[in-house]
Amino acid sequence: MKIVIAPDSFKESLTAMEVANEIERGFRTALPNAEYIKVPVADGGEGTVQSMVDATQGSIIKLNVTGPLGTKVQAFYGILGAGYQGNKKTAVIEMAAASGLHLVNEESRNPLITTSYGTGELIVDALNRGIEHIIIGLGGSATNDGGAGMAQAIGAHLLDDTGKAIATGGAALAQLATIDLKDLHPLITKCSFEVACDVNNPLCGNKGASAIFGPQKGATPQMVEQLDAALGHYADIIAQTGIVDNRDYPGVGAAGGMGLGVMAFLGAQLKPGIDIVMQTVNLAECVKGADLVITGEGRLDSQTLHGKTPMGVAGVAKAEDVKVIAIAGCVSDDANVLLEHGIDALFSITPRALPLAEVLASAKHNLYCTSKNIANLYALAANR
């Protein structure tokens, strides 16, 4: 019997690999002779680096970079290891690690001045280590600068009408007059970039970066108008530079317009995060010949349908006609819709109503116990 365990992390409590380990431990109590294949996965958001490093026996690189407010912060990215089947040396970067909202306290949040420069520094470090393929996860950013800070870090000169470098932050984009790319990092053209992007927002307008994501980053209604105009001007100057005008391309408004920046300055492709991750960890090959696939995440609800890990895993499993069980910390009232889209059974590990702190602290034990009981049931059914 072959069982594939491919969960996402349980946020704030267990990494995806820790989730996979506890599921395996529980299942082995009833099915000790089964073959277990653990493939920690993610959907391109928080935890993607750790999941992909764990899945490929890779390594984490830590370094100090420029944070959203211009002060130094410790950030990280991953380099995939021997378990990666690709033919290029590959790194995985989460934008939030260097430019994330969690790095700015609530009182200091101001997308007029926050910068994505630190994300660019992570890219430069990876390039300098000989990386030939970089996967970047967008989301969770504190910025609304269209990736301008990232562009500055990789060598682009963003200049005002006097020929001086503009300041960092979304507001400064209104002063942009020219873009000079002569000093762009020389290894960028030798590297391919894939960007995990799970929103369809354009750059500007009432569905754009500033209007939709600006308020959560501290933008007032007046700031939203200012930032939206600045991003529009930024897109004008990018187009005048001879770069394809992608301001209306679905997803370029992600992470404060970072989607536009990575397309313009890195030549990146925007793709659904779960698709990038599953392809990189070779999940489809792992599932071939399996008798059962187990997936999960911290919370299962109707939103899981929209590009989340369990649905991506279920899609791969169903292509091989393999049954799928999903395990979560919490299963919401509307989660049963998932049973119509490739998941065969849903289980919550939380035994009773508990304070959140206690739920998180007991997640490992509860996951083991739940997995053990599911395995016992599965073994009973298999032996009928």
Describe the structure.
By secondary structure, the protein is an alpha/beta fold. The chain has 2 domains: 2-41 and 283-382, Rossmann fold; 48-274, Glycerate kinase, domain 2 (Alpha-Beta Complex). It is built from 13 helices and 13 strands. Strands 3-4-5-6-9-10 form a 6-stranded mixed sheet, sandwiched between helices. The longest helix is centred in the middle third of the chain and has 20 residues, at 221-240.
Topology, element by element:
Blueprint: E1 2-5, H1 16-28, E2 35-38, H2 48-56, E3 59-66, E4 72-79, E5 90-94, H3 95-99, H4 117-128, E6 133-137, H5 148-153, E7 157-159, E8 178-180, E9 192-196, H6 209-213, H7 221-240, H8 254-266, E10 269-271, H9 273-280, H10 283-287, E11 292-300, H11 309-319, E12 323-331, E13 345-348, H12 356-361, H13 363-382
Parallel strand pairs: 1-2, 1-11, 5-6, 6-9, 9-10, 11-12, 12-13
Antiparallel strand pairs: 3-4, 4-5, 7-8
Helix pairs in contact: 1-13
The SSE string, one letter per element, is EHEHEEEHHEHEEEHHHEHHEHEEHH
Spatial strand arrangement across the major sheet: 3-4-5-6-9-10
Count every beta strand, where a strand is a DSSP E run of 2 or more residues: 13
Give the helix/strand class: alpha/beta
In terms of per-residue confidence, which ranges show pLDDT below 50 for 5 or more consecutive residues? none
Main sheet makeup: 6 strands, mixed
CATH level 3 topology of the largest domain = Glycerate kinase, domain 2
User: How would you name the CATH homologous superfamily of the largest domain?
Assistant: Glycerate kinase, domain 2
Strand residue percentage: 15-25%
Q: What is the count of helical runs?
A: 13
Shape: elongated
Protein name: Glycerate kinase
Keywords: Kinase, Transferase
Pfam families: Gly_kinase
Family: Belongs to the glycerate kinase type-1 family.
